[in-house]
C-alpha cells in the first residue's frame, strides 16, 4: 500500500457512504466505491471513480473533518486537481458531488471561501 499525505485517520467507509447518500454515490461513480486500507486492514481512504481518468478521493482528517480531492490518473500517475479540507459531515455529499463535476465546476477553494460571498 502506498500512503499519501492526505491519508490521516482510519474510518468506517460504510458510514461515510451513508453520509454521502446512495443516490449521490450513484451519480458520482455509478455505485463504484474503491477502498484503500492500511496495514491493520482499516479504511483510510475511499475512491469514487468518475470518468475519463478523474476520480474523487475522500479521507478523514485529524480534526474529524473530511478531506475531498479531485484527482486525475494517467499512466499510473496521480495528479491532484483540487482539494477541499475541513468539510463537515453535513457538507460531504455536496462537496463530493462538486468534485466529480470536472468539466464545468471549479474545485479546490476552501469551504469558508465559498460561503463568504453568499448573502443571508
Overview of the structural elements:
The protein is α+β, with helices and mostly antiparallel strands. It has one domain. The protein contains 4 helices and 5 strands. It has helices spanning 13-20, 22-29, 92-100, 111-116; strands at 34-37, 43-51, 54-60, 66-74, 77-87. A 5-stranded antiparallel beta sheet has the order 1-2-3-4-5, covered by helices on one side. β3 and β4 form a beta hairpin. α2 runs parallel beside α3. The termini are far apart.
List the domain count as a whole number: 1
What's the alpha carbon Rg, rounded to whole Å? 14 Å
Report on the biggest sheet.
Answer: 5 strands, antiparallel
**Chain oligomer state:** single chain
Secondary structure class reads alpha+beta
Distance between the termini: 46 Å
Helix content: 25-40%
Average of pLDDT: 85
Strand content: 25-35%
Q: What is the number of E strands?
A: 5
- Sequence stretches where pLDDT stays below 50 over 5 or more residues: 110-120
The number of helical segments is 4
What would you call the shape? globular
The secondary-structure element order is HHEEEEEHH
Biggest sheet: strand arrangement: 1-2-3-4-5
Amino acid at each position: 500500500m502506498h500512503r499519501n499525505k492526505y491519508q490521516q485517520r482510519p474510518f468506517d467507509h460504510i458510514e461515510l457512504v451513508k453520509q454521502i447518500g446512495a443516490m449521490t454515490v450513484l451519480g458520482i461513480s455509478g455505485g463504484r466505491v474503491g477502498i484503500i486500507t492500511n496495514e491493520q486492514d482499516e479504511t483510510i481512504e475511499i475512491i469514487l471513480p468518475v470518468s475519463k481518468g478523474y476520480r474523487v478521493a475522500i479521507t478523514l482528517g485529524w480534526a474529524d473533518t473530511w478531506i475531498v480531492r479531485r484527482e486525475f490518473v494517467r499512466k499510473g500517475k496521480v495528479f491532484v486537481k483540487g482539494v477541499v479540507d475541513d468539510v463537515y459531515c453535513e457538507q460531504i455529499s455536496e462537496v463530493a458531488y462538486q468534485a466529480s463535476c470536472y468539466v464545468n465546476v471549479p474545485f479546490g477553494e476552501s469551504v469558508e471561501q465559498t460561503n463568504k460571498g453568499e448573502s443571508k
